[in-house]
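User: Quick sanity check before I run a bigger batch. Here is a single chain. Can you write out its predicted 3D structure?
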Amino acid sequence: MSRSLLPLAAAATTVVLWASAFVGIRAVGHDLSPGALALGRMLVGSLTLTAIVLVVRSHRGGPRLPDGRLLGAVALWGAAWFGLYNLALNAAERHLDAGTTALLVNVAPVVVAVLAGLLLGEGFPGRLLAGMAIAFAGVVLIATTTSAGGTDLSGVLLGLLAALLYAGAAVAQKRLLVRIDALTVTWLGAVAGTVALLPYLPTLVAELASAPASAVAGTAYLGVFPTAIAFLTWGYALSRTTAGRLAAATYAVPPIVVLLSWALLGEVPAPLALAGGVLCLAGVVVATRPRRVPAPGPGSVERRTPTAR
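Assistant: Done. Predicted structure follows.
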């Protein structure tokens, strides 16, 4: 595979695996409480990432671990991204149906674009904003069509909290990746998130004792794939593109969730949900398509466009 396509492949992997997480959380959430599920998922994810780090470093070594303030910043970021975000998302799905939860969580890419424009100097490209508007309209259509109507204030607040944690963590990670490689950041962040969730260890042990094998398998899947692998590919892609464009790509998650629920859970989507999915995908294409720079004409002076480092 061409190296230029690797970030695209990494982003696509993240999107598909994060979409599968919504289905997994919905299935396992009946047997494990939000805190226990978050800790179980992160324990598996941290162990998987530790194994990957050991294998990589045994073959080619690796950079030194950060220390001082930088290590503290990574720990705080990991506690928020891997700990609090997962906890808030799991708790929100206890109060809200999947459609409403998807709508609230997908406020995050818009917030990421605003924060990245203000704090990271990414600006506010018209194509990105237009694509996000199209994709968000698709999310609203999906949420409206699939909503069961069961909402309460606590669920809405938890969903918005998850969105804000997602947005803030994505922007903070972009800054961290300037100084630390994606594998190290993801690994240390996951460990920090796991430590932050350790107060739920007694609950996890008690609930696993009576949980069915399917719940244990589902938790293991969430830890290995939507956590360890998906967050690793997210970090890789984020280090090679802007935060706004990568966040816009995650608008492909809701239509994939609809298709996975159809295939795995037998939940046949309504025609409007499919139409919303098409809108989401169209918005992603508009938002993430690179801007074409016209070739210089005869006698003109070529201008170099600064590239992200």
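Confidence is low (pLDDT under 50) at residues 293-297, 299-309.

User: Great, the batch can go ahead then.
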